[in-house]
Task: inverse folding
C-alpha cells in the first residue's frame, strides 16, 4: 500500500521548526565560516536583499499565493539604498514602531553612529537623509505589522522567476503538478528531525520527489542567486552548500530507514535548482559527494579548499554549547601553544 513521505515527516509550523535548538544547516554553515569568534551570533537573524528575494521565490513556488500574502506586504515605495533601508528597519525595531516624527534627531543619530552609517557625512546630514528618504518606507513598515514589507518591483521579479522555473525545459519537470497515475509525488518544505551520536539535528527540504514505482527519492533545494546560474559552483563553496546537501541527506535517510515502507527506497544525491534574477536561465546542479562521510580537500586553481564534513562541525559545536570554554578547542591555557601548528591548520 502506497504511503506518503509526508506521513513520516516532522509536522510542525515553520516557527516551531526554526525555534527548535537542534542544529541546522544555517547554524553549522555560519559556525564553519566564523568559527569560535562567531559563537555568540550563530542564531542571530540575518537579513539581506538576496535572502529576501530567495524567500519570495521559495514561498510562491513551494507554498503558493495564499501563504505569500500571509507572509509579505507588497507596496510601491521609492527605491532606497540598502544602507538606508537597513537603518530605517533598525530604528523601527529599536523604538517598536514609534512614528518617525516622534523620534528625536539625537536618537536617530545614535543609531546611525552605532551602525557606521555614512560616518563621513555631517551629523545633521545623516539625520536629514533618514528623515527625508525613509519616511514613506518607515510608514509602510508600521502598516505591515507582522508581515515583511516588499516593494512591488521585487515581488514582480519573483513572480517572473517562478513562472520561468515552472516552464523552463531544465526545471519544469521538478515543479510539475502531481499526477496520480504516474506514481510520482512532489512534496514541498517537509521537515525532519534526526540525531548524530545523540546530538539533535534538523532539516527542512525545499522539494522531495518520490518515485513510488521505482523506489527512488530525489532531494532538491531551490537557490536564487545574484551570480549567473553557470557559476553556482562558486556560491556552493561560498555559502557552504555541501554541508546542507550532506546533512539533509543523512537526516532524511535516517527517517527512511526507520519506516517499513520507505526503508528500501534509494535516496539519490542532492540536486540544487538555481535561478539568477538577472540572467533567468535556470540550471540544475547535482552534488556527487552528497553521501561522503568525511571532510574533503579539493585542489583548485587558487589552492586547496577544505569542505569540512558536517559531522565534524556538529561535534565541535556541541562541545562549545555544552562547555562554553574561554578559548577555542585545543588551545593550551597554561602551557605554550605551537604557533606553526595553528598557522598550518587554522589560517
Result:
Amino acid at each position: 500500500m502506497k504511503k506518503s513521505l509526508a506521513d513520516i515527516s516532522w509536522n510542525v509550523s515553520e516557527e516551531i521548526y526554526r525555534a527548535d535548538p537542534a542544529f541546522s544547516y544555517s547554524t553549522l554553515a555560519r559556525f564553519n565560516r566564523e568559527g569560535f569568534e562567531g559563537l555568540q551570533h550563530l542564531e542571530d537573524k540575518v537579513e539581506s536583499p538576496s535572502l529576501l528575494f530567495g524567500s519570495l521565490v521559495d514561498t510562491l513556488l513551494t507554498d503558493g499565493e495564499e501563504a505569500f500574502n500571509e507572509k509579505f506586504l507588497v507596496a510601491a515605495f521609492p527605491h532606497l539604498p540598502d544602507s538606508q533601508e537597513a537603518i530605517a528597519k533598525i530604528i523601527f525595531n529599536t523604538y517598536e514602531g514609534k512614528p518617525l516624527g516622534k523620534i528625536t534627531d539625537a536618537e536617530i543619530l545614535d543609531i546611525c553612529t552605532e551602525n557606521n552609517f555614512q560616518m563621513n557625512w555631517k551629523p545633521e546630514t545623516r539625520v536629514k537623509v533618514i528623515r527625508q528618504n525613509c519616511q514613506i518606507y518607515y510608514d509602510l513598515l508600521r502598516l505591515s505589522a507582522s508581515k515583511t514589507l516588499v516593494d512591488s518591483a521585487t515581488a514582480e521579479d519573483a513572480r517572473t522567476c517562478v513562472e520561468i522555473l515552472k516552464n523552463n525545459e531544465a526545471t519544469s519537470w521538478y515543479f510539475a503538478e502531481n499526477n496520480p497515475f504516474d506514481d510520482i509525488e512532489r512534496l514541498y518544505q517537509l521537515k525532519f528531525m534526526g540525531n548524530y551520536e545523540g546530538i539533535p539535528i534538523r532539516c527542512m527540504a525545499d522539494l522531495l520527489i518520490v518515485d513510488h514505482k521505482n523506489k527512488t527519492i530525489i532531494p532538491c533545494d531551490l537557490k536564487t542567486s545574484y551570480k549567473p546560474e553557470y557559476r553556482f559552483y562558486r556560491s556552493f563553496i561560498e555559502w557552504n552548500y555541501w554541508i546542507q546537501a550532506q546533512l539533509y541527506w543523512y537526516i532524511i535517510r535516517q527517517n527512511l530507514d526507520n519506516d517499513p515502507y520507505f526503508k528500501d527506497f534509494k535516496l539519490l544525491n542532492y540536486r540544487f535548482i538555481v535561478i539568477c534574477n538577472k540572467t533567468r536561465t535556470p540550471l540544475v546542479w547535482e552534488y556527487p559527494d552528497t553521501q561522503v562521510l568525511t571532510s574533503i580537500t579539493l585542489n583548485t586553481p587558487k589552492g586547496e579548499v577544505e569542505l569540512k564534513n558536517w559531522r565534524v562541525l556538529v561535534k565541535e559545536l556541541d562541545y562549545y554549547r555544552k562547555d562554553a570554554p574561554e578559548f577555542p578547542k585545543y588551545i593550551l591555557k597554561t602551557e605554550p601553544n605551537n604557533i606553526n601548528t595553528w598557522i598550518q591548520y587554522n589560517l
Summary: The radius of gyration is 23 Å. Residues 52-157 form one domain.
